[in-house]
Write a structure and sequence with these properties.
Layout: H1 3-14, H2 20-23, H3 31-44, H4 54-67, H5 74-98, H6 102-116, E1 119-130, E2 135-146, E3 151-158, E4 164-167, E5 172-176, E6 181-185, H7 198-207, E7 210-219, E8 222-230, E9 237-242, E10 248-252, E11 259-271, H8 276-279, E12 288-291, E13 295-298, H9 301-308, E14 322-330, E15 335-342, E16 349-355, E17 367-371, E18 374-380, E19 385-391, E20 394-400, H10 404-415, E21 419-420, E22 433-434, H11 439-450, H12 460-472, E23 488-493, E24 497-502, E25 511-515, E26 527-532
Parallel strand pairs: 6-12
Antiparallel strand pairs: 1-2, 1-11, 2-3, 3-4, 4-5, 5-6, 7-8, 8-9, 9-10, 10-11, 13-14, 14-15, 15-16, 16-20, 17-18, 17-21, 18-19, 19-20, 22-26, 23-24, 24-25, 25-26
Helix pairs in contact: 4-5, 6-7
């Protein structure tokens, strides 16, 4: 196909002329061009017709009536007017079909510009703005990327400062200076790359439901065209396209969960290639290498959302002195991890968010409380403490070496509701049948457990299982227990008193009451003090 011939063909269509190819037959050697001409015509027909409104038609008729000279027949006069009106409408419809589409041209220009890009380098900043208009910078990073999919990202500011994520097509790694560790990750498939990768933004615009030109604005000294893009089934967002390079350099998301994300290249340049020394994998002196495919550090909540499919939440309130220092994704469990630390303390706090998989199955050794009126599993033992609950289809966990009071602040900040931890007082519920206890024997059992023997005594469910099974086999147990561990659920536990429900019809005890008699902390053994024979 001769490029000039095709260009003239398109110009004739845009000018409303009939291309000569429509009137003259195609020679045999030009038959291959016919399919391309037909494609061009079909593309021009994709535009939706927008007819002139009724007022326009009336104005046109009035104008023609004012200029119309008297004729012999009133019928002939109106026939002429109607014919002229129809011709005018037809002309406008045809013009609408054939005039160039500025929005389509913008996407087309971006796609063509990206095809010519070999590599680029820039400074990318990501910030978030809440519904009050308060803006916080999440990250600032140096980006090197090429058309082969290789990249080198260095974190300049924000969480995991001075960390590096790179992929040379054969190896992917993350260098974390704070840990003096290099983590190896799969190079392909590479689920996570980085926020606001230019090629991906152009692809999203091309697939969008609508793309609308809003106007012209200057961003970081560059003149840019502002677009409003509505993805299929999604919320509209804004994209700024540099007029010089025809590449998108700024994006502002829709407000989601009271947060709006802005990604922008504050500096940008096209280059021939990424410096080879950046893509050469090597372990720096003093660093260790670790193969860790399961957890991956990201620079923002938006990047975490791209990996797990949901937008993680930040707590509205955190314990005094703590600050977010790292965001990571556990890829095998699709969980987001927010790491917090205090400058004057070694006690870190980790917030984990994931989609809930079934009902919350609390640990049998946990205190049972509530978070925002949702059942909560509370572990208050050394060295790690935790609060875990489910809410609105999500599962949350706050854990760390800090005091339980600090974890409670984070849990309340995430849920927006009260955290209720049962008070360690005497249980008001009394069993139907009390069990006599030899306190001296229990004290000896405690010493045995302290020495590393019979650790099952620290688990109230296990103690209840042994008690209920011995009721069925008082001469002793050989082989499997008559009552399965899975058929026992701790329904109440305040850290000192607990009640276990036995969900087995053959069990004599339906509820077993337990108590920490010797030591009232997480190292204390549990003792059966009574039971119920029916479900009261």
């Amino acid at each position: 196909m001769d490029e000039k011939k095709l260009s003239q063909y398109i110009d004739d269509l845009n000018a409303g002329k009939k291309p000569k190819e429509h009137s003259s037959g195609l020679r045999k050697e030009d038959m291959d061009d016919q399919a391309l001409f037909e494609t061009v015509r079909k593309v021009r027909q994709l535009r939706e017709v927008e007819y002139p409104d009724d007022l326009f038609c009336q104005r046109l008729i009035n104008s023609l009536e004012a200029k119309e000279k008297p004729v012999r027949s009133q019928r002939k006069k109106y026939t002429l007017i109607r014919a002229a009106s129809a011709a005018a409408i037809l002309f406008l419809v045809a013009a609408y079909y054939l005039l160039p589409n500025k929005t389509s041209n913008m996407v087309y220009a971006m796609e063509n510009a990206m095809k010519a890009v070999r590599a680029y380098h820039g400074i990318l900043e990501v910030s978030e703005t809440n519904e009050l208009g308060e803006t916080v910078t999440q990250s600032k990073r140096e980006v090197w990327a090429d058309k082969s999919g290789n990249y080198y990202i260095r974190q300049l500011e924000g969480v995991s400062e001075e960390s590096v994520t790179a992929n040379n097509g054969k190896q992917k790694w993350q260098l974390r200076p704070e840990e003096k560790t290099v983590y190896l990750l799969p190079a392909f498939p590479d689920d996570y790359r980085f926020t606001f990768e230019i090629g991906n933004e152009i692809e999203d615009a091309a697939k969008a439901q609508t793309v609308e030109v809003i106007g012209q604005e200057a961003i970081h000294g560059r003149e840019a065209t502002k677009l409003q893009i509505t993805p299929d089934g999604g919320s509209p967002y804004f994209l700024w396209v540099d007029n010089e390079t025809d590449l998108p350099l700024q994006k502002v998301s829709a407000m989601q969960n009271a947060i709006q994300i802005k990604a922008e290249y504050t500096s940008f340049e096209l280059i021939n290639e990424i410096p080879q020394n950046l893509l050469a994998y090597q372990v720096p002196d003093g660093y260790k290498e670790e193969d860790a495919d399961m957890e991956q550090t990201v620079a923002s909540l938006e990047e975490a959302r791209e990996l797990v499919g949901f937008m993680p939440e930040l707590p509205g309130e955190i314990a005094e002195g703590y600050a977010l220092n790292r965001i990571a994704v556990e890829t095998d469990h699709e969980a987001v991890k927010l790491y917090y630390s205090a400058e004057d303390s070694m006690n870190s706090i980790l917030l984990i968010q994931s989609r809930a998989a079934g009902e919350l199955a609390a640990s049998s050794v946990a205190i049972l409380g509530s978070v925002n009126q949702n059942k909560a599993e509370i572990i208050n033992s050394e060295p790690d403490r935790s609060i875990r609950w489910q809410e609105d289809g999500m599962e949350y966990c706050v854990l760390g070496t800090a005091a339980l009071e600090n974890l409670t602040v984070f849990a309340k900040g995430l849920s927006g509701g009260d955290v209720v931890i049962p008070v360690n007082t005497e249980n008001t519920e009394q069993p139907q049948i009390k069990v006599e206890v030899d306190l001296s024997a229990e004290e000896n059992e405690q010493k045995s457990v302290d020495a590393g023997h019979s650790p099952w005594k620290l688990d109230p469910a296990f103690v209840a299982q042994v008690f209920a099974s011995l009721q069925l086999s008082p001469q002793g147990i050989t082989g499997d227990y008559p009552i399965a561990y899975e058929d026992i659920e701790i329904i109440e536990n305040n850290g000192i008193d607990a009640i276990a429900e036995i969900r087995d019809e053959k069990s004599i005890a339906k509820y077993v009451y337990l108590k920490r008699l010797v030591r009232q902390d997480d190292t204390g053994i549990w003792t059966v003090v009574g039971y119920d024979t029916d479900k009261k």
